[in-house]
Every structure is written in C-alpha cells, then in structure tokens.
C-alpha cells in the first residue's frame, strides 16, 4: 500500500488517490448520490476534494 510505505504522505501517492477519486466519481455518476461504498468518500466530500485538486 502506497500510503503505508510512504508514512501516509499523500503527495507521494497522488496518482493513486487521483485514480481512486476518478473511479468514485464514475461510481456516483452511474449509481447516484445515494449509493454507498466503503472505498469512496460521500459525494459532497468527493466533489470538494476534486475541486481542490483542480486548483492545485
């Protein structure tokens, strides 16, 4: 796991985090905001995270 190997330093695992968020975005687009999975943040938080990443 990238995060544990890198002492939970997100910057070293950015590509994997971005891929997860892209996958989660597709999941919610397909299944709706009421869908749930333990792998993804809630839709509102996901949208916030995606917006923050676009600014960076």
TrEMBL record:
Coiled-coil region list: none
Q: Which organism is it from?
A: Microdochium trichocladiopsis
The UniProt entry, under Pfam families, shows: CMC4
Q: Name the source's superkingdom.
A: Eukaryota
What SUPFAM superfamilies does the annotation carry? Cysteine alpha-hairpin motif
For this entry, the protein name equals Cx9C motif-containing protein 4, mitochondrial
**Which InterPro entries does UniProt cross-reference here?**
CMC4, Cys_alpha_HP_mot_SF
